[in-house]
Sequence to fold (247 residues):
Amino acid sequence: MATFVIVHGAWGGGWEWSPVADLLREQGHRAFTPTLTGMGERAHLMRREPVGLGTHIDDVMAVLEIERLRDVVLCGASYGAMPATGASDRAADRVRRLVYVDGLVPVPGRSALDLSPGALADLVHDGIAAHGPAWRVPMPRALFDAMIPVGSVPDPVRRDYIDRIRDHPAASLTEPIHLTDVVASVPKAFIRCTTVDYARELGSDPVARAADRAREAGWGYREIDVGHDPQVFDPPGIARLLIELAN
Fold:
């Protein structure tokens, strides 16, 4: 039996990964899908103060500590890999393996936005300049269309996904991550989703660069033939890969 903690990506929430968590539990595993501050059912917690990456790292740490979790397979999807990595650096003794699910591989001293397409960076910087650091970033329609194209899932599923998306705290995208050497001791793996081309849609593909880094470092590496959100396109497939990597 393994214990999984899955950290969702930008604009999402723990709700995205509930179907995968249910499948993991059916196989006898434990699964937690926390929602980061300001997102999903915790969107109401946004006030006038900026919510940064440090807060999201604290969110993940709180789950590990309050649930008394050890020997955890900590999974970070997309942006969620940033707080997952930060938590692994602070609690390496609790983490069996850090799994990047088509996620950003952090660079110490740099932010998620530093690793992202230029169009998104411009949007965030312009929004902060106009509205202040507590501004929340709407999901760009071009990004959503790249992630979940029309026709890729039934229309009701796509509409339901759009309905539950929440604007993302801008400060969490601009705050640099600070890591020690401790995180280097944590075994890592990378799952690459192969059917989305951000370079074509958005001008650059930060996940492709992250996947290259993972392969060069010799991490466990798997591919799944779906778009950026495997929890939407193939819950059983991504659950199987997580279990495989946990073992």
